[in-house]
Structure formats: C-alpha cells, structure tokens
Design a protein that fits this description.
Elements: H1 11-16, E1 35-36, E2 45-47, E3 49-54, E4 64-69, E5 75-81, E6 85-91, E7 101-103, E8 127-133, E9 138-143, H2 148-151, E10 158-163, E11 172-181, H3 197-201, E12 209-212, E13 218-224, E14 227-234, E15 241-246, E16 249-255, E17 258-265, E18 270-272, E19 277-283, E20 291-296, E21 302-314, E22 340-348, E23 356-359, E24 362-365, H4 366-373, E25 377-379, E26 382-383, E27 392-393, E28 397-405, E29 411-415, E30 420-429, E31 432-436, E32 442-443, E33 445-448, E34 453-460, E35 464-470, H5 473-477, E36 481-486
Parallel strand pairs: 1-5, 2-6, 5-10, 11-14, 13-21, 22-28, 23-26, 27-36
Antiparallel strand pairs: 3-4, 6-8, 7-9, 9-10, 11-12, 14-19, 15-18, 15-20, 16-17, 16-19, 20-21, 22-25, 23-24, 28-34, 29-33, 29-35, 30-31, 30-32, 30-34, 35-36
The structure holds CU-O-CU linkage and copper (II) ion.
The site of copper (II) ion has 5 residues, from loops.
Length: 488
C-alpha cells in the first residue's frame, strides 16, 4: 500500500493499535442502532440526511462533523421481512441534491435511486417517496447515489436487513456497518482530500480511522456456548477490509445478502471490499472468561468487534448442531449457453498507461480528461457514463460479462438490480495465466485484483436501466461506470 499518502495518526490508533496481543477497549459502546420495524405499507419511514455531529472517536475526544441520516451514523437500521414493502420518504436537509440507493436489492428500477439515470437528484428542501418490495432475505444497505464519493464518505449510509420468514436459531442477530474515515488530528474530516485526483487515480480515498456502527469499536458480552449471527457490511469508500476472526468458530453463511449453498468455515483472513456484506454464524466455543475478536489486519491493524465471554456463566439449554444453509432466495438460474456475451475492458488510473478516452461522445487525450473533467478511468474506452448501454437484454436473457482489469489497482465491480455468478477467474502470475476455481456464490459486486480477468453471468430479469460501476467510489466518480438496459 505504498501509494497511501501520509496521514496524521490520531490518538485512537495509538490507543487501540494491535501490539503483540489484541488490545481491548475498556469503553463499552452500545451496538444496536435504532431499529424500525415496518410491516406492510403503512406510514412512511422518514429518512432525513443532514449535517450533524457523531462520536466517532473515544469518549473525551471531540465529535466529528458529519452528514448523517436521522441524526446518527449509521442511519436508522431498517429491518423488514422478506416479501414486505418498504415505504421511505427522503426529506433532503442537505445543501446539495441527493438520493437513496438501496444497495443489493433486486428493486423496482424507478426506486433504485441513481441520480441522472433512474431519477433526478432530490433538491435541498424537497422530498422523494421510495416504495418497493423486498424479494430477497439478507443483509443490505442504503446510501446516496448522487455525488456518493463525498456523501458516503461524510457518513450518509445505513443498514437494511431483510429477515427470513424462518430465520435460523441463534441467541442474537447483530449487524455492523464497518467504515473507514480520514480524520485530522483534531478529529474532523480531512475535507481538503475530497476530490483529490491523486487519490482517485490510485486506490481511492482510504482513511486512517475505522468505525463500527459509528464508534471506534464494539464490545459484545457473550456466554460460552452462545451462537450469534453477525452481519458485516463495509461502507468504506475504497479500503478493502481484511478481517481476522479469533476466539470463536466462524462459519460464513451469506455474501452480499445471498445465502451460500453450503456454509463455509472461516479459516483465514476474509476480504470485505467496499459495499460487500458477509453474514457469519459465530459459535462461542471457548471457555468462560475467554475473548474473541474481529480485527482489521490490513495496514491499520485494529480490533473492531470485541466479544468478551462471561467469566463463569455458560449458555444454558441444548447445544447447537451444525450450521445449516439459509433457504435460497428466488433467483433465476442463468442458462449455461448465454444469449449474449459482452466484454468490459477496464483501463486508466496511475501506472495504467491510458493515453486517451471518449468523454461525453468526444475523444480526448488523458491530460485534457484529467485536467478539465477529472476523468481518469475508462470502461471500453469511455470515461464516465456512455450514451449507449453496455448491453440491451430482453427480459430473461442470460448475459455473460467478461471483465478485464487492465489497470494497476484492484476494483470491485457492482451490478445494480441483479446478482451475478462468477464462472471464470484468471489471474496473472509470474508463471503466466492461471485459472482460479470459481465459487458458486451470488454477488452484487465482484472484487478483481490487478490484471485479473473475471467472467460472470446474470439473468437479466429486472427491467430498467441499471448501473454497473466500480464501488471504490472515487473510481466511479473518476469515470469507471457504465449501464445496461433490460427491456420489459
Ligand atoms: Cu452501493 Cu451504485 O452503489
Ligand atoms: Cu475501482
């Protein structure tokens, strides 16, 4: 990560940096966000983005000026049952236009919240009604899709949990939004770095402080023998979180909201790229008095979620059996013989050697792209939204998308309104091209390392105009975006 600019270290990192052992915070933090439980279509949930303050750092340190939904970071945790409707009214109290995008939901296109594609940005002081059905159970989130590189980085996001009709038996179901902030020594956002083209051209704007549901970390008190369902969501703009779980038995049961067909034990560090979700079952298998932790192990190296076993008490009652798969969501299986095959060539960025690209229908050299339009990345030679979609699909067609990362950075390609299945992954190694076994996991975003080639398929069964972009939000803003159209 040598491209990381120098960032002032805050006191918090010194307090909680991982030494030889995992340092545990002594401050108990509440972990549950305010929870609303809408059932059927009743009164709307009011969602108000506005400026405010959030206690991102240790108690006693100054609060951070942020933008937030309903006066909290993360915003109101929404919990709905699968198949129910959600009715939310966006009331814009920002000084700029905004929207709400419901990330990962196979949603009615009009409700997807993408400014300039599915709706116009909602002006300051104005409202917008979002009303849609939730077809899939799982862990999702919401965030603005209008200048998201700034609005998400300032704190506008929240969790959206869609509960199964028969959820698996656990002692507790906990959801955590993990975020990455760039704070100055005074605890305030480094605003000068917003829009910094150097960051856009490299790995995106990564920060120096992590948060768990808007706090430096979370302390969860457990008993030996407990089983927890832990939902993790990365709301970071650009950092790929690397998570290590110790002191309990972890089993992965869902990714990006969609159940794994076979749950997998977590045996090594797990990557959680921007926007991704992972649902875990954690079995507290150690003795009373033990500790367990979910820690970040990329360059920041901090404990995020601390589980403290009660010193003597054990969970009473029948022991849990093996972790079983969640019921699958109603996703259509792609055909083995795709109706269309398209290629997505990703270029640009620092050390990418891109000489020119088309922007708003006009070809221009890289200097002009960068200096005049802040465009630094391109998909199929086009920087920013192309006039024509990547593909038109008839409803129900299987589309194969072959994505080539011809850049010097990893990217996380996010599909709107659909989930995709990876069918092929080829990695460039010193010994040449190597095919990596693909998992049959449904994802709404696909992490691709530099020089990797990944082929995915999807069933284009949701009519409308859908975005496809890098979820490293500075890469999206810097040109890495396109769209596709599904006809009715
Ligand atoms: Cu989470 Cu297009 O976004
Ligand atoms: Cu990217």
């Amino acid at each position: 990560m040598s491209h990381l600019p120098e960032k002032p270290f805050t006191r918090r990192q010194m307090l909680t940096g991982l030494g030889s052992s995992l340092a545990l915070s002594v401050l108990p933090h509440g972990v549950m966000a305010q929870t609303l439980q809408p059932t059927k279509q009743t009164r709307p949930i009011i969602m108000t983005p506005q400026a405010g303050k959030a206690p991102l750092m240790e108690k006693g340190l100054p609060e951070t000026a942020v933008w937030q939904f309903n006066d909290q970071v993360p915003g109101t945790e929404l919990r709905v049952r699968q198949g129910d409707w959600l009715h939310a009214r966006l009331v814009n109290r920002l000084k700029q236009t905004t929207t709400i995008h419901w990330h990962g939901i196979r949603i009615d296109n009009k409700m997807d919240g993408v400014a300039h594609l599915t709706q116009e940005g909602v002006k300051p002081g104005e409202n917008f009604e979002y009303r849609f059905q939730l077809p899939d159970a799982g862990t999702y989130w919401y965030h603005p899709h209008d200048k998201s590189w700034e609005q998400v980085a300032r704190g506008l996001y929240g969790l959206l949990i869609v509960e199964e009709k028969n959820p698996p038996k656990v002692d507790r179901d906990l959801a955590f939004a993990l975020d990455d902030w760039w704070l100055k020594a005074d605890g305030q956002l480094d605003e000068a770095s917003f829009g910094n083209i150097g960051e856009w051209a490299h790995g995106g704007r990564t920060g120096n402080v992590l948060s768990v549901n808007g706090k430096p970390n979370a302390d969860i008190f457990v008993q030996a023998g407990e089983r927890l369902r832990v939902r993790l969501c990365s709301t970071a703009n650009a950092r790929i979180l690397q998570l290590r779980i110790q002191g309990c038995e972890a089993t992965l049961i869902a990714l990006d909201g969609q159940p794994l067909s076979v749950p997998r034990p977590v045996t090594k560090d797990m990557l959680l790229p921007p926007g991704a979700r992972a649902d875990l079952i954690l079995d507290m298998t150690q003795n009373p008095g033990s500790r367990a932790v979910i820690a970040e192990t990329s360059d920041l190296r901090v404990p995020l979620i601390n589980f403290r076993y009660h010193y003597s008490e054990k969970r009473q009652g029948k022991a849990y059996g093996d972790v079983v798969a969640l019921p699958p969501n109603p996703l259509a299986a792609p055909s083995l013989t795709p109706d269309q095959k398209v290629t997505l060539d990703m270029t640009g960025g620092a050390m990418g050697g891109m000489a020119k690209a088309i922007y708003k229908g006009k070809e221009m050299p890289i200097g002009e792209l960068v200096d005049k339009h802040k465009m630094i990345w391109a998909l199929n030679g086009v920087a920013g939204m192309p006039e024509k979609p990547l593909f038109f699909a008839k409803k129900g067609q299987t589309i194969e998308v072959r994505m080539l990362n011809n850049t010097a950075f990893p990217h996380v390609m996010h599909f709107h309104g659909h989930h995709v299945l990876e069918v092929k992954r080829i990695r460039q190694t010193r010994k040449g091209r190597k095919t990596i076994a693909s998992r049959d996991d449904w994802r709404d975003s696909v992490l691709m390392d530099r020089s990797e080639e990944v082929t995915v398929t999807l069933v284009a069964d949701n009519p409308g105009k859908w975005m496809l972009h890098c979820h490293m939000l500075e890469h999206q803003a810097g040109g890495m975006m396109t769209w596709f159209k599904v006809e009715t």
